[in-house]
């Protein structure tokens, strides 16, 4: 894609602004003119499994091409770049400085998503950033503000937003009132994983990895897991656990279909769970359940990486008092007259006896469709055409961030305190479904944590009231020098 003028600010000017602590997009950016017949030149930042999938989607899109791949792991960068005849670099800032790059696809580790987005916006690039948007709620808001001020096109990689059945289900539930009034939602991510090991000595770092670049904003801490790549998901320093990994997809669907995007973040939440049965180096819970209260109806979520019975196939069960089981990686919208059961690529409405009323399915390649939606928006310069605009993605990521905060701020397990959180009978039934079978794994209740109800102000994006101080301490991380996310002046009052 050609430009009328360079969109990259002089690197020395950029560093001067950053050193002064001035937030991103405080310095001017130059908007480019784009025409619909120009190919969008994309740099993929992050060459892991997801990076490869996103790169292939951009490569197959006729309106875009992959011209550069950046990854701190040199071997990974070179291998993926070779697939597309693209340039391989280890430092993503080289892609941001390049006049031959129009847009970036950020598929790094979670802890890099926001900083990479901010730097890309500073450089005048359009941004496709993988979910979850943020590693903490505060930094997600900075990306939203930076995107608004820059005028760039920014989309979150929640590809289910590009599935036509989402809007069809919304219409069925809300306009047609096909199942009557919504009472509550239960979301599930019940998929087995394994332990990540627990070494006696720190993991030797791969020689091909520039570890300083890999860490970026994260603290420099020894790693005691067995594998360097991917298992960063289960370390709070770099990942967001299963809640941020899969939970964001499912809760984004819930916000879209059940709440029609009219609820930004929940007004209150509580959580329970633990990392149990494995005795590994992971920190994030492998067994996690939460209650979200909103101004309309509540949502419950159950996540587990454990099988119901050790050594046997089969995921955890979290049916509770529901007349039907919600999908293992999906959700049930519980209504007066039945249930809407939604999951990736498929949905169906059933009556109270489980009889199918209507099915919803579209033969759409979701990643390809989502990437194309972004590319077309880049060409047209019409951000309103995005299926997953960044503020919407910030809100959906927020549900996950807040559920993680509730877990991290939790204390000793207190079933009575949890049950008092909701009058919906499914809530104590879900708690029991998540807790009682843990005895099969030799896990006692004393190994679990639970939180009180935390109250959250969606306007200020901070906790208020009782127990707010400890919860607010998890809303912003400490950044490593040289890799700070700078505050951006807000367009509205956000704390």
From TrEMBL:
<dbReference type="InterPro" id="IPR000683">
    <property type="entry name" value="Gfo/Idh/MocA-like_OxRdtase_N"/>
</dbReference>
<dbReference type="InterPro" id="IPR006311">
    <property type="entry name" value="TAT_signal"/>
</dbReference>
<dbReference type="Pfam" id="PF01408">
    <property type="entry name" value="GFO_IDH_MocA"/>
</dbReference>
<feature type="domain" description="Gfo/Idh/MocA-like oxidoreductase bacterial type C-terminal">
    <location>
        <begin position="202"/>
        <end position="264"/>
    </location>
</feature>
<dbReference type="Pfam" id="PF19051">
    <property type="entry name" value="GFO_IDH_MocA_C2"/>
</dbReference>
<feature type="domain" description="Gfo/Idh/MocA-like oxidoreductase N-terminal">
    <location>
        <begin position="40"/>
        <end position="157"/>
    </location>
</feature>
<dbReference type="InterPro" id="IPR043906">
    <property type="entry name" value="Gfo/Idh/MocA_OxRdtase_bact_C"/>
</dbReference>
<dbReference type="InterPro" id="IPR050463">
    <property type="entry name" value="Gfo/Idh/MocA_oxidrdct_glycsds"/>
</dbReference>
<dbReference type="InterPro" id="IPR036291">
    <property type="entry name" value="NAD(P)-bd_dom_sf"/>
</dbReference>
<protein>
    <submittedName>
        <fullName>Predicted dehydrogenase</fullName>
    </submittedName>
</protein>
């Amino acid at each position: 894609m050609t430009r009328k003028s360079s969109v990259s600010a002089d690197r020395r000017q950029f560093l001067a602004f950053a050193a002064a602590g001035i937030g991103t997009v405080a310095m001017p950016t130059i908007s480019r003119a784009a025409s619909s017949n120009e190919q969008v030149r994309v740099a993929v930042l992050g060459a892991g499994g997801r990076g490869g999938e996103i790169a292939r989607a951009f490569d197959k899109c006729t309106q875009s091409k992959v011209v550069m791949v950046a990854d701190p792991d040199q071997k990974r960068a070179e291998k993926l770049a070779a697939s597309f005849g693209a340039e391989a670099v280890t430092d993503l800032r080289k892609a941001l400085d390049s006049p031959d790059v129009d847009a970036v696809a950020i598929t790094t580790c979670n802890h890099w998503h926001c900083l990479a987005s901010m730097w890309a916006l500073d450089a005048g690039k359009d941004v496709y950033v993988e979910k979850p948007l943020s590693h903490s709620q505060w930094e997600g808001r900075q990306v939203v503000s930076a995107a608004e001020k820059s005028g760039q096109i920014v989309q979150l990689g929640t590809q289910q937003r590009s599935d036509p059945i989402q809007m069809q289900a919304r219409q069925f539930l809300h306009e047609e009132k096909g199942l009557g009034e919504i009472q509550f939602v239960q979301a599930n991510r019940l998929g087995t994983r394994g332990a990540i090991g627990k070494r006696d000595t720190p993991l030797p770092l791969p020689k091909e990895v520039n570890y300083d670049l890999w860490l970026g904003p994260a603290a420099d801490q020894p790693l005691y897991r067995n594998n360097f790549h991917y298992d960063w998901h289960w370390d709070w320093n770099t990942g967001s656990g299963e809640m941020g990994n899969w939970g964001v997809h499912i809760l984004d669907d819930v916000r879209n279909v059940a709440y029609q995007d009219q609820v930004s973040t929940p007004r209150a939440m509580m959580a329970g769970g633990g990392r149990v049965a494995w005795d590994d180096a992971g920190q994030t819970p492998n067994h996690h359940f939460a209650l979200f209260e909103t101004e309309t109806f509540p949502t419950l979520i159950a996540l587990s990486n454990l099988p119901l019975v050790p050594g046997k196939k089969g995921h955890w069960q979290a049916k509770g008092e529901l007349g039907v089981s919600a999908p293992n990686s999906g959700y049930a919208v519980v209504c007066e007259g039945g249930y809407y059961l939604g999951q990736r690529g498929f949905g169906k409405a059933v009556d109270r006896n489980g009889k199918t009323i209507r099915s919803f399915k579209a033969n759409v390649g979701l990643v390809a469709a989502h990437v194309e939606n972004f590319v077309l928006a880049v060409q047209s310069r019409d951000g309103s055409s995005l299926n997953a605009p960044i503020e919407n993605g910030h809100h959906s990521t927020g549900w996950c961030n807040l559920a993680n905060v509730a877990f991290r701020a939790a204390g000793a397990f207190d079933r009575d305190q949890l049950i008092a959180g909701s009058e919906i009978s499914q809530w104590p039934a879900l708690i029991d479904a998540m807790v009682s079978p843990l005895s099969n794994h030799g896990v006692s209740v004393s190994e679990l944590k639970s939180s009180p109800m935390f109250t959250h102000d969606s306007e200020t994006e901070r906790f208020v009231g009782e127990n707010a101080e400890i919860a607010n301490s998890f809303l912003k991380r400490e950044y490593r020098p040289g890799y700070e996310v700078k505050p951006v002046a807000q367009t509205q009052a956000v704390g």
